[in-house]
Amino acid sequence: MIKLTHISKSFGRHQVLKQIDLTVEKGEVVVILGPSGSGKTTLLRCVNYLEKPSDGEIAIGDYRLSCKHASKKDIHQLRQKSAMVFQQYNLFKHKTALENVMEGLVVVKKLPKEEAKTRSIALLEKVGLGSKLDAYPSQLSGGQQQRVGIARALALEPEVILFDEPTSALDPELVGEVLAVIRKIAKEGITMIVVTHEMGFARDVANHVVFMDGGVIVEEGPPAELFNHPKEERTKQFLKRIT
Ligand code: ADP
Hints:
The protein has nine helices and ten strands.
């Protein structure tokens, strides 16, 4: 479904990703863990070209792109296949919740306005915001804003949703409502890659956990295996520190 091959990324002379290989099957929830600075966010951003990889290949479904030779059209096509949920929500501040979700459907998917509206309302209801359609981001809690962000990603019907630390900007009491929504859509079989520090979520929801450190994948496997029987010393140390 998604195959990253030898993905590398440097910022100046600093190589942040070193030949990463990762395969994600359709319907899988992959959680990426690792210490701060290990390259998790950069890897996620490379999947939809918010960062341009220095080298490697990205395949989503039967679409394949070689990073060294990608044209603007290739990149545009690749971007259509994923949607990102950001740490800081990244909503349009001067648009309502409904308009934020509709935007991608009207501008990117070119749907007629009425159809975009009907679909957006259904998605906002799905994330528990049916009563907040006309609220502006400033009138919503962080948890509600992030749920709008999730509805917006779902609206695009991407092949994969990329979550970049979706709960790390939230007050602790708001984390649960956002994780509950992610859990719910994971059960529907939507393919996801999630960068998070929420270990409980990783244990319960992930099919596959990837531990990164220093720009490489140190270890990966099913959550029960990685959490209960980590093989690598770096994984053991990391898990000891955070659990
Ligand atoms: P993580 O998500 O694991 O905390 P990141 O992917 O955010 O790690 O960052 C990995 C490394 O890349 C860090 O050393 C960070 O400072 C560096 N980095 C990330 N983005 C940029 C950028 N736009 N310019 C320069 N360095 C960056």
